[in-house]
Write a structure and sequence with these properties.
Layout lengths: L1 H22 L12 E5 L4 E3 L7 E7 L4 H17 L4 E7 L6 H8 L6 E10 L9 E5 L5 E5 L8 H16 L9
Parallel strand pairs: 3-4, 4-5
Antiparallel strand pairs: 1-2, 1-5, 3-6, 6-7
């Protein structure tokens, strides 16, 4: 009887070991950022793959989400301050298609680009299971932080801690380090 269960147990353990590996593609910290390609509200194309060398903030939000709306001024102020230093940002609204005008109206008050989540041609981050969620991607295209209201809310301080070290790394000239 043990001989019959041994292959079953081995197969079960082997399959279970694969599950975390497969789940890593959805914006896990320390993993390469998944694909993200979407047409912005202004008609331009946002393609995460073309932004290597820049730090990118990706914020999933919705007009009907109070915590989302509360953090947007901090995102906007941070974007205005650091955009010229290599920071890119996109707000992906999880609203329904018929709410596009509501999203556009809200975004009129902010300077960073936005798009409708439903307009994504490619979204390896998958649909968010909670809102808001903000991902920080470094210049090499690796997810370095995930900010949520329960864990680390988006504030000027949390953005400073998560983003500024990444911006400073990309602005250092190659070969400049201690001992040069």
């Amino acid at each position: 009887m043990r001989q019959i269960f041994a292959p079953f147990i081995f197969l079960t353990v082997a399959l279970a070991a694969l599950i975390p590996f497969e789940a890593r593609g959805a914006g896990e910290i320390g993993q390469p950022a998944p694909a993200l390609l979407v047409q912005e509200l202004n008609g331009q194309t946002f393609d995460l793959a073309t932004l290597r060398g820049k730090v990118v903030v990706i914020n999933f939000w919705a007009t009907w989400c109070p915590p989302c709306r509360q953090e947007m001024p901090a995102l906007d102020a941070f974007y205005r301050h650091y955009h010229g230093e290599g920071l890119e940002m996109i707000g992906l609204a999880a609203n329904r298609a018929h709410e596009r005008s509501d999203v556009a109206k809200v975004m009129d008050s902010f300077s960073y680009p936005a798009a409708m989540l439903r307009d994504c041609k490619s979204n390896g981050f998958n649909d968010p299971t909670e809102l808001p969620i903000t991902y920080i991607v470094d210049g090499q295209g690796v997810v370095r932080a995930k900010l949520t209201p329960e864990e680390t809310p988006v504030t000027e301080q949390s953005l400073t801690q998560a983003v500024l070290p990444l911006l400073s790394k990309q602005t250092q000239p190659r070969g400049s380090g201690s001992g040069n």
